[in-house]
Amino acid sequence: MTTKRIAVLTSGGDAPGMNACIRAIVVASEGAGHTVIGFEHGFHGLLAPNWRKLDSKKVHNIIQRGGTILRSARCEEFKQDSAAKNAAKHLSELAIDAILILGGDGSFRGAKHLSKFWDGQVIGLPATIDNDIYGTDTTIGYYTAIQTAMDSIDKVRDTADAFERIFLVEVMGRHAGFLGAKAAISGAANYAILPELFTDPDETLNDIHQQLSIHRKRYGHESFIIVLTENLWPEGINTLAEKLENLTGGEVRPVILGHVQRGGSPVSQDRILATTLGVEAVRCVEQGKHCIMVGQQNLEPAEVPLEQTWETKKVFSDSLTRTMKTMLNERHSWDLTK
Ligand SMILES: Nc1ncnc2c1ncn2[C@@H]1O[C@H](COP(=O)(O)OP(=O)(O)O)[C@@H](O)[C@H]1O
Ligand SMILES: O=P(O)(O)OC[C@H]1O[C@](O)(COP(=O)(O)O)[C@@H](O)[C@@H]1O
């Protein structure tokens, strides 16, 4: 087997497990005699260029660390042809055979853009807390973010119970509700306002009010927790809190979890996913694969054409929708007064 020069970079929102993936790429490559070069600060690193050689000593003891040792960035400039051409020139000068790009769908668009001007192999690895990438069941970082959001909901519940308040907990996800759904299920929230289930603000308010009334009749005047995906409520979480206070006559407190959800040591599922995908990506390089994402479907590695990852919208599975409705949003339709 001919040995290759493999580049790696992390782009877009950092995700817990990116380091575990970099480690796996380096270890798998080194074992097969390949050379690994890490570019820093996402696509900016290809433009500068800003790179360093990686070997197993440099990725020792990083599996447990959040963030990314290669740093990450959003690089608006990379959308221009001139930038991608410049990156291609640098990759050719460094005699790179393949580049592995860890990031979300935006980074994959960047990867595809690069492939128009460079004839090396371009491979994406899904890493985002949002889990909004088509073609992979989960993404690196998703499980850790769920865990963080769930832990936060557990903590919020203590005050919510003590003060008999309604709490609104805003989670990340950009425009997708995967993180919100799993945080709400695992945190046993009472209601979830997610893009995939959202119809209209008035209908949602009435729905919450109805459910709250039934909940209080059954359990007394206790806590009620609502999970909300960011960027969804038309005038933001504070307006929603005010509207709910007016409607229910009770105290409502908004909590925005924010970037806390992106940090922290990756949980085991993210470390294992990241390690598996890193090894698989190196195998794909050896097989000459090009313009694909290496993801996971039904617990097996899956290769998906890069464009498909953003052209096809990832949707809730039927079972996730059923679970959300049954356990949270449609409980008011039961006769809980008996
Ligand atoms: N259409 C595009 N063409 C070229 N590069 C892109 C394109 N879309 C996104 N990128 C690059 O990918 C980076 C990360 O994308 P972004 O959507 O911010 O995060 P993520 O990859 O996590 O979804 C952008 O800052 C930009 O450098
Ligand atoms: O850190 P920034 O640039 O404010 O971006 C926030 C966004 O990044 C995320 O945390 C992660 O999104 P990406 O992985 O797609 O970059 C989103 O959930 C959130 O909307």
From TrEMBL:
It comes from the Bacteria. Its EC number is 2.7.1.11. Pfam families: PFK. Residues 5-284 form the Phosphofructokinase domain. It is found in: Cytoplasm. Its cofactor is Mg(2+). It catalyses: beta-D-fructose 6-phosphate + ATP = beta-D-fructose 1,6-bisphosphate + ADP + H(+). Its main location: cytoplasm. Pathway: Carbohydrate degradation; glycolysis; D-glyceraldehyde 3-phosphate and glycerone phosphate from D-glucose: step 3/4. GO terms for molecular function: 6-phosphofructokinase activity. It is an enzyme of class 2 (transferase). InterPro entries: ATP_PFK (IPR022953), ATP_PFK_prok-type (IPR012003), Phosphofructokinase_CS (IPR015912), Phosphofructokinase_dom (IPR000023), PKF_sf (IPR035966). Belongs to the phosphofructokinase type A (PFKA) family. This is 6-phosphofructokinase. It comes from Alteromonas gilva.
